[in-house]
Amino acid sequence: MELYEAIYKRRITRDFKNKKVPYEVLERIINAGLQAPTHDHLRNWDLLF
Known about the structure:
It contains 2 helices and no strands. By secondary structure, it is mostly helical. It starts with a helix and ends in a 15-residue tail after the last helix.
């Protein structure tokens, strides 16, 4: 999926399922989020699972 396609197809989620998310999926999502730039270029994240 291309960037603009992802932006235009985004949806708001109001209801969530009571289903466990595999650790590998959470790790991939968090790692992707950590790639985003910040205004001060570096943050010291402390993620506890």
